[in-house]
Design a protein that fits this description.
By secondary structure, the chain is mainly α. The chain is built from eight helices and no strands. The chain has one domain. It is 73% helix and 0% strand. The protein starts with 13 loop residues before the first helix and ends in a 5-residue tail after the last helix.
């Protein structure tokens, strides 16, 4: 009798696939951090030519225009928008464009980009606190240590910055920007889970830009 040879089955190691996904996600976070850090210097330079309001609107008109071009392909939500999510969408859109960017742009007309980079590091702290409060996420010891190191690193990097607190509105505006960033981050998480990352990013940007347009000069 001839025995049939069974084809060899190649088993994929799920741990390898998971490791690759984590590396990819960490790479995206690092890339975003670098771009985000460069923005502080770019904002400071741009405000030699533009007001904080016009800089905010110009940036988001460009971004929203690009997003709307992609909207027919990537902007369709995974499911229909639920009415109960509309207030959250409006809040997140306002916090992302007007709240965060306008506050930060105004602050950098008063404080140095180094000080802005220092104070904006309070954003992750606000994110952790709001996540624990509204999303019921646990705050572990490792996370608290990471936040402490992040703040310490920001202080070290900004040690030679012009720490001028005579005009309190500048530092206060950066803290406000950090808080708005945390509202956007925490508030958008349920929307991303419900409707998808790209549709949420596209429509939050477009709605936030509409909020900013009445202030154009």
């Amino acid at each position: 009798m001839k025995t049939k040879l069974r084809p060899k089955m190649i088993l994929k190691n799920p741990n390898t696939a998971g490791f690759g996904a984590r590396i990819f996600n960490y790479g995206l976070v690092i890339t975003l951090s670098v771009i985000w850090g460069l923005a502080f210097v770019a904002i400071r330079r741009a405000e030699f030519e533009l007001s904080p309001v016009n800089l905010t609107i110009l940036r988001w008109l460009i971004a929203s225009g690009g997003f709307l071009v992609l909207a027919p392909v990537f902007g369709r939500p995974k499911k229909p928008i639920q009415r109960r999510h509309i207030p959250r969408i409006l809040l997140v859109s306002f916090a992302s464009v007007v709240g965060y960017h306008l506050s930060l742009n105004y602050a950098e007309t008063i404080v140095s980009s180094g000080l802005a980079g220092l104070l904006i590091s309070f954003g992750p702290i606000f994110v952790v606190l709001l996540s624990a409060l509204f999303l019921k996420e646990k705050i572990g010891n490792r996370l608290m240590l990471a936040l402490a190191l992040a703040v310490a690193g920001a202080v070290i990097l900004s040690i030679n910055a012009d720490l001028n607190f005579l005009q309190i509105t500048g530092p206060f505006a950066v803290i406000l920007a950090a808080f708005m960033y945390s509202i956007f981050s925490v508030g958008s998480k349920p929307l991303v889970e419900e409707y998808g990352a790209l549709p949420t990013a596209i429509w939050v940007a477009a709605i936030g830009t509409v909020f900013a347009l009445p202030m154009i000069s």
